[in-house]
Amino acid sequence: MMLLRVPLDVPETAIRVGDLRAQLAQLPDDYLVVADHHDPEGGGRSLLGWPMQAPVRDESGRRVPIVALPQLHVSDTAAMRVSFLHGRLAGLPADALLVALWETSDGPRQSTIGWPVETDYVDEVSGVSVRAVALPQVVSGATGYAYDELVYNLGWE
Fold first, then answer.
1. Bridge partners of 57?
2. What is the model's pLDDT at position 82?
3. Label partner for 65 (CA 20 to 30 A): which of 1, 6, 19, 97?
4. Tens digit of each residue's pLDDT (9 = 90 or more) over 99-109
């Protein structure tokens, strides 16, 4: 069962595209960008891929833009760094809500994300620790199963 509507009210700590862009401009370009997530299977920290946008209906029935940052496999070399993500967000609506997406055995999940935090990320393949920016999970009405529109656009059906 996937979420069908974007909630009209999300916590103030859930950031939007314009907020993230402004914060990324203040951070070192070469930091990896990762997202924290928690779900019934536990939780973790995922490398993130290229942002993608999809229009999703909100609770009032209007189509609103949602920008998803999908999880990548730990060995994927297309992981976002601060400079790449900052540039990719430039053409997207500043007021679009951001969600991180990850796959579970029960289906794709998503969560709104909060303000970036500088941290270390331990590469699961090499064991090397690198500097990163973590986007913490912010539980909201948009946390749970991923929106159909995002899942279909990513080919995670």
1. 63
2. 96
3. 1
4. 998 888 888 88
Against a cut of 0.85, is the pTM above it? yes
Secondary structure E strands in 40-84: 42-47, 52-57, 63-70
Tell me the C-alpha distance between 15 and 98, whole Å.
7
- How many Å apart are CA 66 and CA 14, to the nearest integer? 13
SS3 122: strand
Residue 56: both structure tokens together? 């999703």
Residue whose C-alpha is closest to residue 111's, from 52, 20, 36: 36
The model's pLDDT over 76-130, given as tens digits with 9 standing for 90+, comes to: 778 899 999 999 999 999 999 899 988 888 888 888 899 999 999 988 778 889 9
